Amino acid sequence: MTIKAVTMTSMLLYDTTLRDGAQGEHINFSAEDKMKIALRLDDMGFHYIEGGWPGANPKDTAFFEAARSITFKNAKLAAFGSTCRPGMKPGDDPLLKALAASEAPVVTLFGKTWDLHIERIMENTLEENLRMIRESVAWFVSLGREVIYDAEHFFDGYKDNRDYALETLAAAWEGGAEVLTLCDTNGGTLPHEIEAIMEDVKGWFADRPFGDQRPLKLGIHAHNDSNLAVANSITAVRSGAVMVQGTINGYGERCGNADLTSIIPVMQLKMNIDCMGQERLARIKSLSRFVSETANVPPLNSRPFVGKSAFAHKGGAHVSAVLKEPRGYEHMTPELVGNERRVIMSDYSGKSNVTYKAKEMGIDLEGVDSREVVSEIKRLEQEGYQFEAAEGSFRLLVERMAGRFKPRFQLKNFRVTVEKDKDRHCSSHAIVHIDTPFGEEMSAASGDGPVSALDNALRKALECFYPRDMAHMQLVDYKVRVLDGAGGTGSKVRVLIESRDPDTIWSTIGVSEDIIEASWQALADSFHYKLGSSEI
């Protein structure tokens, strides 16, 4: 009996962030982190969540133990592991017994499909490898588990030895695997190769007699070493794959995995393949940020669909066109993936940028010539300012030019000292003297460096007059860039400060040949922005 490949108008989403994504450099999830992400993925409607390799390390074992008490609403939890070892029965292999003990309803087994690995690296025989695949899959099926077979290095194995690579798939299928996932483990396969090979796989299975009537289900797991993981995944879907494996934000070893935050919107919005529904899709940017924060990896601004810059417009002509017809410069509506359109202020800006940005920030431009604002922005950017990264300072600039800026404090003077004793670390102290509508205040404070001391002293002075605002505001990032190193230690520097309160994040900027002066400019703007926003 021949079998036919399944084609679907919906797609099975298999997330492997907790296992394959955790292999990325600088990513180290705790068992608690994994559970938080798993629950978020379940809420988003993912069909499969790969939790890790129980038995391979204590962290993954602890995760699966904790997962036993969790009822997932949408997802099936998958335990990942290898086929049994050469010369060993599955039921005797400690690693396979650990997979079974995890009680995960789904077991994802990877097996070797490339004769290079089998004979030269594992020093095994091709025949024994087929037995290991067939019997390992069959053993888990006999235990009542759903088995997904990951054909490791499938495309490379196919290119070297087509017939044997296909036989490994047949062994997994005969063992009872539910899905055969074709893996581009080295990430070197091109889209047209994916298409041709998948068509051959389907044709080969259709021409081969099998003893059951199960429809063939193929999946794809692409790595990004050639920057083609998303393209290869989409190609595989067009070629009949019914399951896509990947990670949130494309996290993973070397260059990463296929990024599900791109694949899902492409399938849902551009291919009309149902993945998770529109309501959940509108939360995919939030999911991306959540995983990024949990992994302690800064979000990539240029990440398609969910990045901060995905729908950002800088050139004046572009902004003018977007104001008239967004489709002219945007391939989709940002809100569909939970993102938003942004207009960036820079020396490329035109009148339309200022008009749009002012409207976005709730700034009344009545009585302000937007061309003068553009001219001033371009002049300041010649000096080294960069308002695209400092929207808080941009707001203050427009308010000053409009004559609407009401300073909540003015600097009278400050003094910063840094002391270094022979056997002690540096110590920094600052004294700040300010004038406010409620009177003068002088405060002193120390800190971890001169900028920290200045921040603490200013905050201490302002707390006397604005205690509630100061309690909710904190500095969260501080960056310094030398604008022209030719001047050596006297070079002009740009300081960017990012601050936040429970509701908002804002950035401010300062530029000077003196790093303390530049830091004060950015710091003062940050406090002015907060105190001004509190009255809006």
UniProtKB/TrEMBL annotation:
Gene3D superfamilies xrefs: 1.10.238.260, 3.30.160.270, Aldolase class I
Family: Belongs to the alpha-IPM synthase/homocitrate synthase family.
InterPro entries: 2-isopropylmalate_synth_dimer, AIPM/Hcit_synth_CS, Aldolase_TIM, Citramal_synthase, LeuA/HCS_post-cat, LeuA_allosteric_dom_sf, PYR_CT
Pfam families reported in the protein's UniProt record: HCS_D2 (PF22617), HMGL-like (PF00682), LeuA_dimer (PF08502)
Signal peptide: none
Keyword check for Transferase: yes
One term of GO molecular function: (R)-citramalate synthase activity
Annotated source species: Desulfobotulus alkaliphilus
Annotated metabolic or biological route of this protein: Amino-acid biosynthesis; L-isoleucine biosynthesis; 2-oxobutanoate from pyruvate: step 1/3
Recorded catalytic activity of this chain's protein: pyruvate + acetyl-CoA + H2O = (3R)-citramalate + CoA + H(+)
Gene Ontology biological process: isoleucine biosynthetic process; L-leucine biosynthetic process
Source domain of life: Bacteria
EC number: 2.3.3.21
CDD domains: DRE_TIM_LeuA3
Presence of the UniProt keyword Signal in the record: no
Protein name: Citramalate synthase
Every Pyruvate carboxyltransferase domain range: 11-288
Keywords: Amino-acid biosynthesis, Branched-chain amino acid biosynthesis, Isoleucine biosynthesis, Transferase
